[in-house]
Amino acid sequence: MKSTFLPNRIDYPGKFIELVRNRWKEKENSGQPFEEVFQQIYLDRREKDLIAEQILSVLFSTKFVSLLTESEIGSNRGFFSDLSERMSYKFLPPINEPDELRTQFGQLFSDKKDYRWVKAIPDENWAAFLDTLFPHIQAPIRNYIEKELLNAILILAQRATNLGIEPEIVSKLPRVDDLDSPFLGLNREVILYVENTLNNPDYSAKDKDNDYRHILVMISQCNSQVLQIYRHKDQFGISLQLTYLMRQLEQYLKRLTQLLDLLQTSEKSRQWIIITQLLKEFVYAENTKYSIRKHVNTNLQLLTFKVIENTSKTGEHYIAADRNDYWKLFRKAVGGGIIVAFLCCNKTRLYFQHFPIFWEAFFYSLNYSLGFMLIHILGFTLATKQPAMTASTIAANLSNNGENPNWLQKTTLLLIRLIRSQFISLVGNAIIAFPVAFGFGWLYFFTFGYHIADPAKALRLIRELNIWESLAIPHAAIAGVYLMVSGLISGYYENKWIYNKYSLRIRKHPRLIRLLGHQKLDKTARYLESNIGGLAGNFFLGLFLGSTSAVGFTIGVPLDIRHITFASGNFGIAVASLQNNITTELWVNSIIGICAIGMMNVLVSFGLSIVFALNSRSVGFREVKSLVANLSWQFFNNGTAFFFPVGAKEEEETTNT
Fold it and tell me: Which InterPro entries match (predicted)?
């Protein structure tokens, strides 16, 4: 049978990898399975021996530490340092040391898509191939490999210990820096294990196995400490730096377990499976080592989860479960609409002050921010903020589907309640903003002798609502983005408050104690702990809405925002200023515009929020597809429930059909 390789080719491993890579590309384009690839590629014994000989030669002449302790783990420099390093390496790659196994490994799997075909081949196929490729390994090479593995194990244990006693982690886990700390215990046990293995000729297999089991106990206790921080995120809070440290610590412990298992197991098949798993990790790591997207996504997922989780607690208050909650939301929305109507009037008067562009943006932002914060303090609602606050509540139900067999029915019911709650809140906001702004416009006219807006400004306010002749829809989408971002900001500041222990610091502040006393200070701390996220989110939302137009004017881009409640209030001001001389066409176009603006606000805000929430909880597409299908079926069969509250029995039947 004809040989697969050219007879005078020296780089046999590289040639083999290239051959498998090309076969995978053929299979990928044809859509055929790629599981039995090794059985389809002919290799005679001579070619296998040459591949094995060259691979073993590389292993015997290179250092393992960098590959085993850094690949897919990274350095201890921190999130932003690693991020800037990856960005610089994209333009000017570093010099790789030729005596490092990691360098040789990267050259062998040089194609950026190699990790795909490496992963596509099942572990069992890889293990079987490697077993036939390396039937016997000479003692000097085997001893050298074992020494390099022990060196990597020692370094991994020390790095894990260093991270385990970092101040960021110690502050969340008291006593982990004591002598009884599992991290310090892990380091002691690993040093003993490595020293005895290398230098103690009397170190029996039984003693070695006992020490190995002690190390596993220490690793288990270290992992328990990590889980404790995850489970008590509400109590501890989370930060970008802590997230980075926790991820690295988990990776060190995982890699340490893999290498110890590789050394200790006597089953050859088990050894090859472990090597295969490491191979897949290393190939993926080397192919994506300069990927900025991967770095950001990997390290921010936990932080995003924590930030969005805070909004889910607030979001539960925006979902009406029964008729009482439904009409309670309506009353809160009416209160919010009244305040927004006055904000519209105040903004219009600010417009006629003809401030310079910076000061106009400043006062617009102040008008919005103070108004939104007042809405929050008084317990009213701004309807379009609800989707951003409730998205993670939906995601939480989807991500817990494994623990809840009825997750689809319960999540469908939750979504129906959310849509219904959003509908009545939008109605409450918009339906009151118009008459209040209209009435205040006439009251202003009777008091001062002129309207809030002149005819030119009034016509402009109406034209801005016309979705056929203006950029109302894109501007409403921009507002939807801001509404989503304000929800994230709320979660961020709630988490920041907990993480930095601001409540305790306020209660212990000596000057504040003398000024307010313990009772008032405690009340203030409790109020801020419960409301700091909402206040911060509303403040920044006002800042975004008030400054967008000025930013667009400065850079020469037609940027602006449209919000349903402000659109309704502005329409009321315009109608009053034109003394009710509005044609039927303008009425119809304006009402259509207000409704379209509201829909765009909600769709963008909720859509972006749910994407962030689902990503932070690693929810799969299958769950989302099932939910959308069930929700669509419910809408066509029980559409009334999406807009008005139904009885408990009827609602139960709705979600169980």
Answer: Aquaporin-like, Site-sp_rcmbase
DSSP 175: T
333 HSE (CA, 13 A, CB side) = 27
CA distance 114 to 367: 56
Per-residue confidence (pLDDT) for residue 529, from 0 to 100: 85
Buried b (16+ CB within 10 A) or exposed e, 141-161: eeebbeebbbbbbbbbbbbbb
16-20, 218-222, 266-270, 574-578: range with lowest mean pLDDT: 16-20
* 248: its two tokens: 């690295």
Beta strands in 450-500 (DSSP E): none
Please report which confidence band the pLDDT of residue 461 belongs to, taking 50, 70 and 90 as the band edges.
Answer: very high
d(CA 141, CA 61): 10
Give the list of residues 6+ apart from residue 276 with CB closer than 8 angstroms, or none: 123, 126, 127, 130
CA 643/CA 316 separation, integer angstroms = 18
Please state, in angstroms and rounded to a whole number, the distance separating the CA atoms of residues 230 and 234: 9
Let me know: does 465 contact 590? Beta carbons within 8 Å. Answer: yes
HSE-CB at 86 with a 13 A cutoff on CA atoms is 21
**What is the pTM (predicted TM-score) of this model?**
0.70
Which amino acid is it at 236?
F
Sorted by where each begins, the domain ranges of the chain are 12-290, 306-656
